[in-house]
Amino acid sequence: MLHPAYVRYAVCKAHWASTRRRNVVEQLTEQRRAHIRRLLQIEASVFAEGGQPVWPAQVIDIARMGVGFILAEKLPERPRYWIRFRFPDSPIVDEAEMIIVYSRPVGSKGRYHYGGRILAVSQECRERIVEYVTRGNRYMT
After folding, report:
1. Domain match, 115 and 49 both
2. In principle, which of 41, 44, 131, 135 could form an S-S bond with 57, CB 3.0–4.6 Å?
3. Residue 102 included in any domain
C-alpha cells in the first residue's frame, strides 16, 4: 500500500502537469487564432515557384494572414507555395504567396489538411479577404 503523503504528491503533480499542458495548448491556440478566421468551401489550386506542378485544392477557411486547405496528396518540401482561389460568387481570381505552417493527414484516403501563412498578396486581395472574413459579402468586385 502506498503512503498517503506519496499519493497526495502524485495527485498534485499529475494535476499540475495537466493544468500546465492545458494552459500551453490554450496559449498556442490563441496565438494561432490571432486573426478572425471564416469557414468556406471553394476550389483552389496550389503551386510551387514557376507555376508547376499544380495541385487541386479545396480552401476550407481563410483569415487575413492565413488559409486552411485540403489536398488529395502530400506536398513536397518547398520554402514557398502560391494559392489561387476565387471567393464564392466573385469573378475575381486572387493569388497569395504562402509558407506551410502545419500539415496533418485527414481521413483514410490519403488526404492532407494544410495551414498556410500568407506572406504576400495584393492590397486588393487583402481587402477582399478582410471584407469576406468580417462581413461575409457574397459578391465582391
Report:
1. yes
2. 44
3. yes
